[in-house]
Amino acid sequence: MQASGAKVGVLALQGSTRLHVLALAELGAEPVEVRRPVDLAGVDALIVPGGESTTLALLVDSSGLRPALEDRLAEGLPVLGTCAGMILCATEVLDGRADQAGLGAVDIDVRRNAFGRQRDSFEADLDIEGMPGGRFPAVFIRAPVVTRAGPDVEVLARLAEGPVLCRSGAVMVAAFHPELGGDLRLHQSFLERI
Q1: Against a cut of 0.70, is the pTM above it?
Q2: d(CA 145, CA 86)
Q3: Which of 89, 166, 179, 187 is catalytic?
Q4: Which one is catalytic: 20, 83, 89, 187?
Q5: Residue 177 a catalytic site member
Q6: pLDDT class for 1, splitting at 50, 70, 90?
Q7: Which of 42, 61, 111, 170 sits at a 20 to 30 Å CA gap from 91?
Q8: Measured between alpha carbons, how far is 55 from 41 in angstroms, rounded to an integer?
């Protein structure tokens, strides 16, 4: 199934942008790189990619994007946040900078680097609730984990350490990098909900 030409923004300030853009194009969406508030105006949805979460939060603030993101989120903008994107979308960030504020797009608390440092990166095949086609190959790089999920948050996948894929309304967040595993089902699932 193809996304019917939806314009999907990819936050392009820092981090894993290119592979998300390629995945969206392959699925028939129109990717738009978002660097300034004006770039958000015409998008139907947004991907907040992985990267370094403290740097990403600082760049969202210095670019002037935070108020525009908060406005669009309040309007119900569908968002897929991956790894650092999960951290940025969270309500509470544990083990971050004292001034590191999430966008509160999804009612979760997350712990940064919950699985260890870069050398502790790993891959795992996940059972994702409601996803056909078998287990999903997930790549975890300095990944967060959900330590608290609010009552309106669906936990779609978990590891022993805690939830790693959650959805609430139009927002889906993953502790892993779906763009690195060569499987487009998570992107497709996101596009189908736009």
Answers
A1: yes
A2: 9
A3: 179
A4: 83
A5: yes
A6: very low
A7: 42
A8: 24
Pair of tokens at residue 160:
């022993």
CB 137 within 8 A of CB 182: yes
Q: Of 20, 89, 166, 177, which is the active-site residue?
A: 177
- Segment 114-146, tens digit of pLDDT: 888 888 889 999 999 999 999 999 999 999 999
CA separation, residue 174 to residues 7, 39, 63, 85 (Å): 21, 24, 24, 8
Q: Which CATH architecture has domain 7-192?
A: 3-Layer(aba) Sandwich (3.40)
166 an active-site residue? no
Cα-trace Rg, the chain: 15
CA distances from 74 to 1, 122, 149, 171 (A): 29, 35, 19, 11
Establish whether 52 is a catalytic residue: no
Q: Which residues contact 155 (CB under 8 A, 6 or more apart)?
A: 129, 146, 149, 163, 165, 166
Query: Could you state, in order of their start, the residue ranges of all structural domains in the chain?
Result: 7-192
Distances (CA, A) of 168 to 7, 105, 172: 21, 9, 6
Residue 75's contacts (CB-CB under 8 Å, 6 or more residues apart) are none
